[in-house]
Amino acid sequence: MTNGRVSTTPSRRAEARYIIIGLALVLCGAVAALVVSDRVANIYAMYFSYDQFKDLYYNKLGLSDARSELLTVITQFIYGVAWIPLTAFIVSWRLNLQKVLMGFIAWVVIYGTAPAAILLMGDNVCFSQSSGDAQKWFIQDQAGNILLFDSDGFTSSGEPKKVVTQQICRDYMRQQTGNRPQLLTGSLDQIEFFDSVTGTPKVWYNQGTDGSIQLFDKPGFDPASGEELNRITRDIVLSLQAAHASKARVSANTRPHTTPEPTPPALPSNSASGAPVLLHNGSTVYLVGEGSVRRIYYKQPRQGMLAAGAAPHALLFEGAVSQTGSWRGSAYIFSKRCGAFPYAVQGYLDPMTGIINLTGAAPRVDANCRVISVGASKNDTLIFTPIGD
Questions:
Q1: What is the residue extent of each domain of the chain?
Q2: What are residue 137's DSSP bridge partners?
């Protein structure tokens, strides 16, 4: 006691000694555990190892390698410093508000660094930069929005989560920036379906349960149905054009009228009698070739085809022969009321027999001249057998 006051110096010194002794005991215990147990070594690797932090920044957050290296070094130092006050808090026998606050801050720094980094820097990285493995799962709500998750399993409503794909991640990023697919409502003649140089599709579509097709300007999901959009194909384009033409005909047919017989095509100089004649499903047809272009016309349709609207000289196939000898183009189905509908076919000519074999999925047309299925039909086979004139 000095001048009536109790000196606190001895008690503070004693407390400091207790802290130092406690730290020494913790350090000795840690060293001993490292020697005798792999579990503690694994715990050390979990909280202090370089690889854990590097994985967080490089794979989870998708940062560059150099930036990940720098942040890893900084985080390791912060972790090491944060353990000092936390250890002092643990071994201290006399607690006060200041010590509790320091212990809490140290605890948050140690265990909250990873989630804080993800929260602040974003966590939209779908694939690991090291292994390429998917590290996100997703669902799609009724509005077509993509929701990402960090783990697989089920949502709180019981919907199963699905592992992401590259396309899903691209669609998600477009969704985040507001760059969503827009419905194309212009005329088919004004839509550029394929790139003029590369031939890659520039339009996406979705087909409803009623067979109707809607076109969009970019990949993603249909805002109405939530279904993933498909790349446009030449078969779909041909079917759309045919459906549009038939719809226009139906709109114009406010009164019955007779469709004029098609004008015979221009034949080679050796006249129609010199054109190769083929037999096709009971009808006779003739082949016209101009360079690599090939066209097949009805010469004398069978009775069933006449009833369906096919007339002499009606175009049955139009396409081209490639350098490899394959045939590719459009064949036509006929409807007495709706006219002709094209669909994509491909095949070959047998050089030994002269038989032409083409296959393709013909569209189905309802009573209102609408194409009700595209590409879903079983492939039709068209065989043309040479018979001479």
A1: 9-121, 130-180, 182-232, 272-386
A2: 149, 163
Angle at 180 between CA 146 and CA 232, to 5 degrees: 100
What share of residues in the chain are helix, strand, coil (percent, to 5)? 35, 25, 40
Q: What are phi and psi of 136, to 5 degrees?
A: -135, 155
Q: Cα separations (Å) of 29 from 26, 32, 76, 78, 122?
A: 5, 5, 22, 23, 39
Tens digits of residue pLDDT in 245-281: 666 655 554 444 444 444 444 433 333 456 789 999 9
Summarised one tens digit per residue, pLDDT across range 191-212 is 888 877 777 888 888 877 666 7
- Structure pTM? 0.36
Task: Please say if the pLDDT value at position 159 is more than 80.
Answer: yes
* 289: its two tokens: 């070739």
Token pair 């009623």 in the structure block, residue: 210
Q: Which fold has domain 272-386?
A: Lipocalin (2.40.128)
The CB density around residue 93, as the number of other CB atoms within 10 Å, is 8
> What is the C-alpha to C-alpha distance for residues 112 and 168, in angstroms, rounded to an integer?
30
In whole angstroms, give the CA distance from residue 64 to residue 301. Answer: 69
- CA–CA gap between residue 211 and residue 341 (Å, rounded): 16
Q: For residue 305, which phi and psi values (nearest 5 degrees)?
A: -75, -35
Tokens encoding 337: 């009321």
Chain centroid, CA 158 distance in Å: 24
pLDDT averaged over every residue in the chain: 74
Count CB atoms within 10 A of the CB of residue 88. 19
